[in-house]
Each structure stands twice: as structure tokens, then as C-alpha cells.
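Need a sequence for this fold. Nothing fancy.
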């Protein structure tokens, strides 16, 4: 069964593209028509692309890897933060920090610095510094929280990027290409769908369109996470059964060996007793 339908996307306003004069010719296969100088996106192709992207994201989350969501435009940041937080995935909704992927080691240093500042507040270090220094450190902590708060738990490079508006987030796309990280994106008629691995042709300016597509993607990720949990439980149960069966087999082998030893010992004792207790038989008298 399809995750969404033509009518649902139509109601969300996903079919509205940009003005004709702003279009990118590479989007021609996904444009249905032009009306009043505005391109209309073919939603039948959007449904297909949503299915492809959702299936791929489901497999990534099922394997235990992270997907980084990038949406810094005003109408998308709150939607992405609310929906992505529910599936425990990292996201960037403020300015994309240059080198976020290509210079990941430096980003990790900034995250560690944020953790050190938090530690200073708990171990009493703040009590021994001046009020001015305390204020300066607090401001630095707040700035780092805005920029890197959602990626603080990202200990390694993400397995994929999901981007809202690749035209605006071109730096993130370039960094992902450089590191061969798969990219998923909502692509409007003013963008080049060939720049991403899994383009979803849709309106990337309307909040209803963005919300609907992000909701579908996070549901697919949630499915992958739940299946991963089931797989782990099944594997644990199988390992437990295997361990129990192994113990039973070892116990049976010990019992069999013990019984066999007792039987052989009994046979040896019987042979010794039978040989020692025999007496020579007397010959019967011969009648004349």
C-alpha cells in the first residue's frame, strides 16, 4: 500500500512550483503543466519518489545508522525540529556550519567544549570565576547550543542527509557529495534533481507540503527502528535457545558417556568373575 496519495499531496499544496522564468530545465520530467506563469509538478511522480526515498530511509534506520536532516529556511525549521526529534535523529535548523561534514573532527571538538562548559556548572568551577567570565562562558555555551545542540550526540558521520531546498543548502549538498554520503531532498522546480540521489519533486516553500513529506519520512524511519528492535529481540531469543540446546546436548553427552562407562565396567567385572569361578568338569563313567 502506498504511503501517500495524489489527493493528499494535492491538499498539502505540493504541486505548486516556482515561476516559469525561475525554473531549472533538469526538472522538466517532473513538471506536469504551466498555469498562470507557474509550473505545476506531476504528483504521480512525486508519489513514486516518496516511496523510493521512504524505503531507503527505512533500511538505513533499520541498520542502526543516523540520518541528518537539514532545513534552515524559516517555514521548515520548526516542522523539522518537532518531527525529527521524535525519532531521535540529528538535525540542523540554524545556519549550516561550514565543514560540518568535511571537517567533522573540529565540529566534535566544539561539541566537547560544550560538554566541558556543562561540567563546569556542576563541579563548582563557576563559583571560583568572576561574574564577567561566567557571563562570557554562558553566552558561548548558548551560541554552541543553537548551532550544534541537535548534533551533540552524533559521534560519527551520518549515513545520509535529508535536505529541504537544495538550492538554499547547496553547501551541505556539496559536502555530502565530497564524502559520498547519500542525499535525499525535497526538490522544487528551481533546483537540479540530479544533484541528489533521492529527489522528491514537490513544493519546498509551503509549510503544509514540507510537513506532510517530513511526516512520511519520519514514519518510515520509525518503522525501520521498530523492526530493528524486533530483530534484536528475535536474535537474543535465538541465541538463548541455542545456548540452552547446547547445554542440553552437553548434559546428554555426559550422561551417555557415564552410562556407557558403567556398562563396560560391569562387563569387565562379569568376565573376571566368570573366569575365576569355573571348575573342571568330571568325566562320566563308561559302561562296559
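Here you go.
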Amino acid at each position: 500500500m502506498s504511503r501517500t496519495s495524489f489527493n493528499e499531496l494535492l491538499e498539502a499544496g505540493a504541486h505548486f512550483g516556482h515561476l516559469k522564468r525561475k525554473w531549472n530545465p533538469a526538472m522538466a520530467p517532473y513538471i506536469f503543466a504551466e498555469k498562470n506563469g507557474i509550473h505545476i509538478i506531476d504528483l504521480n511522480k512525486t508519489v513514486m519518489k516518496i516511496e523510493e526515498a521512504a524505503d531507503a530511509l527505512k533500511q538505513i534506520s533499520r541498520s542502526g545508522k543516523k540520518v541528518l536532516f537539514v532545513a534552515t529556511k524559516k517555514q521548515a525549521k520548526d516542522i523539522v525540529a518537532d518531527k525529527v526529534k521524535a525519532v531521535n535523529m540529528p538535525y540542523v535548523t540554524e545556519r549550516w556550519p561550514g565543514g560540518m561534514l568535511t571537517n567533522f573532527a573540529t565540529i566534535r571538538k566544539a561539541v566537547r567544549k560544550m560538554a566541558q562548559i556543562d561540567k563546569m556548572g556542576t563541579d563548582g568551577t563557576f563559583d571560583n570565576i568572576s561574574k564577567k567570565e561566567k557571563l562570557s562562558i554562558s553566552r558561548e555555551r548558548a551560541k554552541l547550543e543553537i548551532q550544534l545542540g541537535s548534533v551533540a550526540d552524533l559521534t560519527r558521520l551520518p549515513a545520509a542527509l535529508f535536505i529541504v531546498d537544495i538550492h538554499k543548502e547547496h553547501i551541505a549538498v556539496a559536502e555530502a557529495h565530497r564524502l559520498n554520503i547519500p542525499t535525499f531532498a525535497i526538490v522544487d522546480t528551481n533546483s537540479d534533481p540530479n544533484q541528489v540521489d533521492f529527489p522528491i519533486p514537490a513544493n519546498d516553500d509551503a509549510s503544509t507540503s514540507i510537513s506532510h513529506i517530513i511526516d512520511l519520512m519520519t514514519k518510515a524511519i520509525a518503522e525501520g527502528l521498530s523492526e530493528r528492535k524486533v530483530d534484536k529481540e528475535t536474535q537474543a531469543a535465538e541465541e538463548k535457545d541455542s545456548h540452552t540446546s547446547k547445554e542440553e546436548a552437553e548434559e546428554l553427552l555426559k550422561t551417555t558417556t557415564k552410562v556407557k562407562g558403567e556398562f563396560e565396567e560391569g562387563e569387565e567385572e562379569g568376565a573376571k568373575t566368570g573366569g575365576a569361578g569355573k571348575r573342571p568338569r568330571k568325566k562320566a563313567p563308561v559302561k562296559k
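For context: The first strand starts at residue 16 and ends at 19.
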